[in-house]
Design goal:
By secondary structure, this protein is an alpha/beta fold. Helices cover 36% and strands 17% of the residues. It has 8 helices and 9 strands.
């Protein structure tokens, strides 16, 4: 699914930033969502912030997950019983197949400052992993309720040791009703980023969302804010 911003057809000379979002089934249409009727309303939210001049017009690409193989695609390491560990292969698909396809078929701006990636839960995990591993490609990251608990919090160790340059602009959030340890884990991850040089509300926005649960309805409410932060109107 590809969202085109207001003005795309009317301004054939203009090129646009691109945001790639995982779990595409859940983004635009309640009929395809994991929980029927519950989607992120990405199209309406993007239209709203762009029309109000709060975010730059951008192209949004919703990448469908593969159902049962989702855990494999969205995790950097393999875990006994849960499986996983194919995120690098998924990255190869994104970079060698999907991104060239989008760049050839649509009027896109190039460079990491114009290329974002995002997702929630395991989609947030893979966005962080690939974004910190390939900041020369993805310079805008949205990690909503990311599953940094995966494989004994290996993502925290990865972030602490990664040489990330240039630093991506990063939106990070977590709801307080998502599980007993999850807020603590995500805030540990945030603190690692701060130690590595990210700065609050310059290139890092962190939000602890009081009362928010781990579901599409909660994430839908964060679409407008993360678009404003990652792609502010120029």
């Amino acid at each position: 699914m590809v969202y085109l911003p207001p003005g795309y057809e009317e301004q054939p000379w203009r090129h646009f930033s691109v945001l790639y979002l995982h779990d595409g089934q859940n983004l635009f249409d309640g009929a395809t969502a994991f929980v029927p009727g519950q989607d992120w309303h990405v199209g309406q939210s993007a239209d709203a912030v762009i029309s109000r001049g709060e975010a730059e017009p951008l192209i949004i690409v919703g990448i469908y997950n593969t159902g049962k193989a989702r855990i494999r695609e969205y995790t950097p390491t393999r875990v006994p019983k849960l499986g996983g560990g194919r995120a690098d292969r998924y990255a190869k698909f994104l970079i060698e197949e999907l991104k060239p396809f989008i760049d050839s078929g649509y009027r896109t701006l190039s460079g990491p400052q114009h290329t974002g990636m995002g997702g929630s839960s395991l989609g947030g995990l893979v966005s962080l992993y690939l974004g910190l591993r390939m900041p020369h490609i993805f310079g805008r990251l949205a990690a909503l309720s990311p599953s940094v608990w995966w494989n004994q919090r290996i993502m925290l160790r990865f972030a602490a040791s990664a040489d990330v340059h240039p630093r991506p602009r990063l939106w990070l959030d977590i709801g307080t009703r998502e599980g007993p340890r999850i807020v603590q884990d995500v805030e540990q991850f945030r603190d690692i980023l701060l130690r590595k040089g990210w700065q609050y509300d310059q290139d890092l926005h962190y939000e602890r969302v009081e009362g928010a649960e781990h579901n599409e309805a909660a994430w839908a409410l964060r679409v407008e804010p993360f678009l404003r932060f990652l792609f502010p109107a120029r």
